[in-house]
């Protein structure tokens, strides 16, 4: 069995591959690099074949999204590698970015880890999708060391220490291959967005842990496939967050779900009064999607209840802390509300 494969999912991403693959090829030796292509209609494959013949290419039959695209590709790699390093196609990596991540796995309880993720466009700042490690608050709102909602911090070394986190970013995520398959991969119902958080929660319930190691740094463009201000991204984020809550919340479900949907309603009204009518509509549609998928989600929830591992949360409201208490930075949050 080989040690590690860097696996990049691609769909019509020729421009990103041309920009970002050179750093991956230069700084990922001696490990394998694999392009998993979701039936691209551009010249992505021919470009990689001619420019980087050492890269292995897996051709998925259709573009069925991030979750299924990775599931299909990694199923073909099963039993070939000890680790998968899932990497977005719009990430620039740096020298010696892999070894610090591998060192984390000296702890046998670690299922996955991530590097420090900074912005490709503003390299002094953390990037939205992962920053220096992800957490969830009591209402299942995700946030990161270095990023709360749309506020990203300047990286001044304030988070330059390894820490156990709740979830690792799918933008750059190193994980044990056997655990990916043990958990049956990403939930394909999610299509894209937050499927990595759901996977981390499911593995945490099996007793595994997650870490960010800032000794490794990458730079993420972000929004390369779906812009951050896209109405479709709003839909996926609200819908998938509800899916994740229903599947993984360990306590009484419906009081928690009602509270969360009420908070979504407040966000929708804010969108409406801000003139963002499409965003308002997408929040509504996300709730409709929840009702349609509720039987399936409740079945998945029942299956997960047999696992008794502990998920680490922030036992406070990130909305209250951010908007009411004006705590804009992770370091300003009440440390006593984090699991230790």
Task: Give a written overview of the molecule.
It is a single chain. The chain has helices at residues 14-27, 44-51, 65-76, 99-103, 177-182, 195-204, 231-248, 253-273, 277-304, 318-324, and strands at 2-10, 32-37, 56-59, 81-87, 91-93, 110-119, 134-136, 142-144, 147-148, 151-152, 163-165, 172-176, 209-220. The protein has 340 residues and is α/β, with parallel strands linked by helices. Helix 2 (44-51) links the parallel strand 2 and strand 3. Helix 6 (195-204) runs parallel beside helix 7, helix 7 runs antiparallel to helix 8 and helix 8 packs antiparallel against helix 9. The protein starts with a strand and ends in a 16-residue tail after the last helix. The model has no long low-confidence stretch (mean pLDDT 95).
């Amino acid at each position: 069995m080989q040690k590690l494969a860097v696996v990049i999912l691609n769909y019509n991403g020729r421009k990103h591959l041309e920009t970002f693959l050179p750093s991956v090829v230069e700084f990922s030796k001696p490990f394998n690099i694999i392009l998993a292509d979701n039936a691209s209609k551009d010249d992505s494959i021919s470009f990689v074949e001619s420019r980087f013949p050492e890269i292995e290419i897996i051709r998925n039959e259709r573009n069925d999204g991030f979750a299924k695209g990775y599931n299909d590709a990694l199923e073909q790699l099963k039993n070939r590698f000890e680790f998968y390093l899932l990497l977005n196609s719009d990430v620039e990596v740096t020298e010696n970015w892999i070894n610090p991540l591998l060192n984390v796995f000296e702890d046998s309880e670690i299922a996955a880890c991530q590097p420090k993720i900074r912005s490709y466009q503003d390299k002094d700042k953390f990037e939205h999708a992962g920053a220096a490690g992800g957490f969830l608050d009591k209402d299942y709102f995700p946030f990161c060391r270095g990023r709360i909602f749309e506020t990203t911090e300047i990286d001044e070394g304030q988070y330059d220490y390894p820490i156990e986190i709740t979830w690792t970013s799918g933008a750059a995520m190193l994980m044990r291959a056997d655990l990916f398959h043990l958990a049956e991969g990403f939930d394909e119902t999610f299509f894209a967005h937050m499927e990595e958080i759901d996977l981390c929660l499911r593995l945490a319930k099996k007793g595994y842990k997650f870490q960010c190691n800032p000794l490794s740094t990458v730079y993420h463009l972000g929004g390369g496939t779906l812009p951050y201000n896209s109405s479709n991204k709003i839909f996926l984020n609200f819908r998938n967050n509800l899916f994740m809550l229903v599947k993984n919340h360990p306590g009484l479900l419906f009081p928690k779900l009602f509270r969360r949907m009420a908070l979504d309603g407040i966000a929708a009204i804010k969108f409406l009064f801000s003139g963002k009518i499409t965003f308002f509509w997408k929040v509504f549609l996300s709730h409709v999607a929840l009702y349609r998928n509720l039987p399936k989600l409740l079945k998945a929830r029942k299956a997960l209840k047999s696992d008794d591992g502990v998920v680490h949360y922030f036992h406070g409201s990130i909305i209250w802390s951010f908007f009411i208490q004006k705590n804009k930075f992770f370091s300003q949050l009440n440390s006593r509300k984090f699991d230790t």
